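Q: What residues go here?
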């Protein structure tokens, strides 16, 4: 089968029920240990461009709706564990003949950026919409999308490991494929399966294209052994605690990443 035929098959392959992934993700940072005596634990990080990957850190500039400002502490680098970067490069190799490539929004994330969204931006936005949302209910809603920042070697935020990455598909050096939402639209619209079960009579061409492209990205990444966040179509990881939880692994390979100075 040609590369175009393979990709078309992936665009038409249903994602399947994401309820199991949502259940597996709950409490993963307290349930999944990080194994330190594995060969990957101390693996170095590299910049994405060293693996031939394209991208631009979403938080380091001001053209980043819905924020429209640079987030203090953001880095303009895209740091990834070497193995994760190599896996992404293999995905790129698979889709190159179709004129497609991955485009990265974020990889390793400084603690200050994680804290800003978890502690400030997201709670403020949720309470603006629903002033009655407070306490544990507010925290639960925030943490559907934004992991709590942590310096703990036992329970790092996924992006702090440099094993998690936010990305999309685009035409080589061109326009991104339509995914049905903004990156970081942290609402139900971003759910990986948002467009899977729409009624045909209410199914627009835009929704159909978003469904096909989300499926394509999902299957390309999972066939390279990445695990996808069920509530964020753009988030994937390999080797961290979320990856282990979503794939049924007993432990994670990576803890907090050490970033070159």
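A:
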């Amino acid at each position: 089968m040609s590369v175009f035929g393979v990709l078309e098959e992936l665009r038409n392959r249903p994602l399947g029920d994401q309820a199991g992934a949502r259940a597996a993700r709950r409490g993963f940072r307290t349930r999944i240990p990080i194994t330190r005596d594995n060969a990957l634990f101390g693996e170095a990080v590299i910049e994405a461009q060293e693996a031939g990957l394209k991208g631009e850190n979403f938080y380091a500039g001001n053209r980043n709706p819905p924020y429209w400002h640079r987030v203090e502490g953001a880095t303009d680098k895209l740091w990834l564990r070497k193995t994760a970067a190599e896996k992404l490069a293999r995905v790129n190799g698979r889709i190159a003949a179709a004129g497609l490539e991955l485009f990265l929004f974020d990889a390793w994330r400084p603690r200050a950026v994680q804290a800003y969204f978890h502690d400030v931006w997201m709670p403020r936005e949720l309470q603006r919409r629903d002033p009655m949302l407070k306490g544990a209910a507010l925290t639960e809603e925030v943490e559907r999308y934004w992991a709590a920042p942590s310096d703990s070697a036992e329970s790092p935020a996924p992006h702090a490991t440099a094993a998690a990455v936010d990305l999309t598909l685009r035409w080589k050096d061109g326009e991104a494929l339509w995914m049905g939402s903004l990156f970081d639209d942290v609402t139900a619209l971003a759910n990986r399966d948002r467009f899977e079960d729409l009624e045909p009579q209410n199914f627009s061409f835009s929704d159909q294209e978003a469904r096909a492209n989300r499926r394509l990205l999902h299957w390309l990444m999972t066939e390279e052994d990445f695990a996808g966040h069920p509530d964020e179509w753009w988030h994937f990881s390999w080797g961290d605690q979320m990856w282990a939880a979503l794939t049924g692994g007993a432990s994670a390979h990576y803890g907090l990443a050490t970033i070159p100075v």
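A: Context that may help when evaluating the design: The two ends are 46 Å apart (CA to CA). The chain has eight helices and seven strands.
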